């Protein structure tokens, strides 16, 4: 893709990125450390997904990980850094803590805010901060050995990076409360029954192959139409039906244009795959700031 040729992700410490056929595959790449989320991760993930979006370099993002486990969540070093800063005048200390939590939240807010759908493929354990991240993805898939854990409760704190805000929209609230209060593991079968994951696969290789097929199916559609779907589903989660319908009408007044619709109809008539233009990247002036 022409837009992705200018992107270079070789310097990342915690992730690998591969963009091909309109699909960006992001892998958590610290398997020996169980892909724990060290301080640099909280900068690299949002910067990476936002750059992909800003350059319109992909139409779908698939997040997976290397090693036996998806992610052990927040690395101990993050907590240690917080402990070092936990001093000084109470009001200023509290204000700094609030800003720090908001910055951590922003790392996963980025997954929702970008125009591109984000799919997650999980094997092994997804613990603590990993559940926060998965909750911000569009769809989740896992292997039969996967498990999910709201671990924060067990270490004496309340999960604060999105799990408790997003999970009640994805699963029955009573189950979310049980998982949060007890800190117990949610296994793959129960995650499937409760709607947290879409499908369970026998192993990681099978899962990745199938999730990439789903990503390819998404990527063949109009990126404007898919962007509209993502935006509207997220919007209606946070607003009532009346407001969401009104927002939809306003969206269509500008976004409903004929070229993509004509391309889709023509492709169906000719029994061919439609071709669509990419979403526009930001201006080169903005991109130069990356």
UniProtKB/TrEMBL annotation:
InterPro entries per record = ClpP/crotonase-like_dom_sf, Ech1-like, Enoyl-CoA_hydra/iso, Enoyl-CoA_hydra_C
Coiled coil region boundaries: none
Classification via CDD domains: crotonase-like (cd06558)
Q: Which domain of life is it from?
A: Bacteria
- Which Pfam family, giving just one, matches this sequence? ECH_1
NCBIfam families found in the cross-reference section: PRK06142.1 (NF004794)
Family label:
Belongs to the enoyl-CoA hydratase/isomerase family.
The protein depicted here goes by the name Crotonase/enoyl-CoA hydratase family protein
């Amino acid at each position: 893709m022409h837009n992705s040729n200018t992107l270079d992700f070789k310097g990342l410490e915690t992730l690998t990125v591969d963009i091909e056929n309109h699909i960006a595959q992001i892998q958590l790449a610290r398997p020996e450390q169980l892909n724990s989320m060290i301080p640099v991760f909280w900068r690299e993930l949002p910067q990476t997904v936002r750059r992909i979006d800003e350059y319109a370099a992909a139409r779908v993002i698939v997040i997976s990980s290397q090693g036996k486990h998806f992610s052990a969540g927040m690395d101990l070093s993050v907590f240690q850094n917080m402990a070092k800063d936990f001093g000084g005048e109470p009001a200023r200390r509290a204000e700094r803590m609030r800003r720090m939590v908001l910055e951590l939240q922003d790392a996963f807010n980025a997954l929702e805010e970008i125009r591109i759908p984000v799919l997650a493929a999980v094997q092994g354990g997804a613990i603590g901060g990993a559940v926060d991240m998965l909750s911000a993805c569009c769809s989740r898939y896992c292997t039969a050995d996967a498990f999910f854990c709201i671990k924060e409760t067990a270490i004496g704190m309340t999960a604060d990076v999105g799990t408790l805000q997003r999970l009640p929209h994805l699963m029955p609230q009573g189950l979310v409360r049980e998982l949060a209060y007890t800190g117990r593991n949610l296994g793959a079968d129960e995650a499937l029954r409760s709607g947290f994951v879409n499908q369970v696969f026998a192993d990681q290789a099978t899962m990745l192959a199938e999730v990439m097929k789903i990503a390819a199916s998404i990527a063949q559609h109009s990126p404007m139409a898919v962007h509209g779907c993502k935006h509207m589903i997220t919007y209606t989660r946070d607003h009532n039906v009346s407001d969401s319908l009104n927002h939809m009408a306003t969206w269509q007044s500008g976004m409903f244009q004929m070229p993509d619709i004509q391309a889709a109809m023509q492709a169906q008539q000719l029994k061919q795959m439609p071709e669509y233009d990419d979403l526009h990247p930001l201006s080169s002036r903005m991109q130069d700031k990356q």
